[in-house]
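Hi C.,

You asked whether I'd gotten around to modeling the 194-residue construct. I have! Everything is below, sequence then structure, no commentary in between.
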Amino acid sequence: MSGKRKVIIVTDGDLIAKRAVEIAAHNIGVRCISCSWGNPTRLSGEQLAELILSAAHDPVVVMVDDRGFHGEGTGESVMRYITEHPDIDVLGVVAVASNTEGAAGVAADECITNNGLIVTSPVDKKGFQCVNDQTLHGDTIEILQELDVPVIVGIGDVGKMCGCDDADYGAPITTTALKEVLNRSGYLGEGCNQ
């Protein structure tokens, strides 16, 4: 592993997602930059990179969100900036499915259903397995086809998924997704309760 700051990107940023990501990050001992939340993303790539580089420890979890925008929205622009930053090493992306019509898909390395199963086929916004599809669909993940991201783990709507990922229950699906990025990326760092 290089000396770059290690980052996991979550492609959801509304208030419910914020709470779930905070809980999930806490569950596994990683740092969450809570002010990266926003629907859509409110910080610029430069602002978020500065926060990442000044974080107390690695790895760092950040949120990006396009709020249903087709094409490269603010969340995807920030994701591009972060993945191309010379001092940041993106370990992977927790790619969130959405119901945005016409959104391009991306092939995920694995997906996690709303009951916690790790599967090779994509899931929908509610976290149900889509056995007849090959790609995960979402408005803030279209750009992933163009970026050099080593691990993509797909899940449904963060903090929701029919109540299965509720922060009050420990955001178990988001927690599993973050763990899977760490495991698949080969990251072994202090403070990670894997």
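If it helps when you're writing up: The beta strands are 5-10, 31-32, 60-63, 88-96, 105-106, 110-112, 118-119, 136-137, 152-155.

Thanks,
B.
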